[in-house]
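Entry 14. Two folds queued back to back today. First construct below, sequence then structure tokens.
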Amino acid sequence: MIIESSKQVSRNHLFKRFPIPTNFGVTKESRVDRGKAWPAPAGATRTKSFEVYRYDPDSGRGPHVDTFEVDLDDCGPMVLDALIWIKSKVDSTLTFRRSCREGVCGSDAMNINGRNALACITPLEGIKQPVTLAPLPGFPVIRDLVVDMTQFFLHYNSIKPYVVNNEPLPERERLQSPEEREKLNGLYECILCGACSSFCPPYWWNPDKFIGPAGLLQAQRFIVDSRDRATGERLEFLDDVFKLYRCRTIMNCTEVCPKGLSPARAIEHIKIALLRKPA
């Protein structure tokens, strides 16, 4: 059976989250301490508390958590709006990535209340407070909520994320039937935000060897593309104990994908293709 949703897995065996106790087994320099608490603005009647992870390698200070009281009547409806409000009205040194504000670019992926998500499409209404904001787990932190995704994109590049076809060029485009095009649905929509890979325990354990959910989802996107002529080479490249088989079907990737995709299902299809591949 191909697992397409966490609903197919018994709740007794489903690990949605892998919370790490604060400061457990870390060096003194890496301990997360309490930082500054900023008061609510004068006259604010409707506020929400935010606990934001802070780290500046140039400051000489270790990581810490600052607390901010955001005036909801002076702020937009999303978590990203709250971050922009904090940066513009309270602490201009707060650092985070953002771009499109529409859940398309993937720039503002972060850990919100223990779960990876896009800040721009996470509404403030109904969210439990204090709202804890932290950088994507498993990635090196550059500063505050900004992480180094170099390794992530090296894995993405390794799967050759483009159509490989050395046949003579047609007079126009390479055509696909509606049925062939439909096979790409649920794969091409990936925005490379990194939410899935950074919420995947095997990726934490082997970040330099395991390609990760996002990269493998993209690999499947080109494996099933009828215009591609490198399916055999792609499968041979992935047939590796670390690149592919570190996946333990924990399903965290599918749980947190902001586009509703299922990297776990894509990985399962790759494994099936390898089983059916002629010796």
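Second construct, same run, same settings:
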Amino acid sequence: MKIFALSFSFLLLGLLSDPQLKRSPLFALEPIIVSYQGPGIMNLPVGIAMQRGFFREQNLDVKLILTKTEVDRVALATGDIDFSLRGASIILGAIKGLPVRIIFVGTIKPFWALVVRSEVNSIKDLKGKVMGVSGMAGSHHGTTRLILKQHGLDPDKDVIFKVVGIGSRLPALLTRSMDGGLLEYGEAFRARKSGFKILLNAADDYYSLNWGVGVSLKKLREQPDQVKRLLKAMLKGMKYMRENRDVAIEAIMSWLKVDDREMAEGIHQLSINNFTKDGTVDEATLKLLVEEQLVELGVKIEKVSQVVDLTLVNQALKEVR
């Protein structure tokens, strides 16, 4: 009888460790809330991970919610959300003393093109004009200011900033409520088809950690297993996007609601090299990315570890290879 009981215990243990069984309805998925900027190109690996079931493989039920830059990092610190994909916002929060960290670096360059009205021929022509930004903090606002400054304009005096969210910038151009702004590639292509101009691709000259995974120090300390499982799903989404061009293009069409395959291919070509290979970067690049986010604040950091901790993503990489 003891031998039977022992054998049954081992059988049960084996069944419980079977990943196929864990994905069955017998096991309730862990609900987690992940905040993001919207279904833009920079979040494409997340979209692919959701479509291919990579989060469910890790026993996670991911719910994406839209948040504003100003409240996102506070909600992360207080536990109102589990993870954030707003990389720049998390960096700013950590610098201001909030107990949050970046644990996955998704991008190294911005996914924006500077789009302007047809009568604007140069960046200097934007003097006195209305510039659309996603918020009054974060990488979108900071990169806009940096571009203006490097082309001879004073961001504080020469332009008017107006908060216009993703998906609303092209309508704002069409209704003349804004004169220019950094648009994600999908919006930028649509804008050009509507007669607006693309003055520059921000990725050609600027670095930006637009997409990264942020978490609170409390969750990092108390639920490292859950954090690592989320990172594994992210890594699989990133790898699948890089290795399957046609799938990535189809995902762009569905994720960004692009019905023109040629446009989707153009977006893919512009954006694919803006992503990191595996959620990590070398120390020098990491320092550059963080400093780019803080340049407008006039803030300097002594150690990148004040805002970034890649320990778990490095562990996850060893386990998914």
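Quick look at the second one. The chain has a mean pLDDT of 87. The chain has two domains: 14-109+208-320, 112-204.
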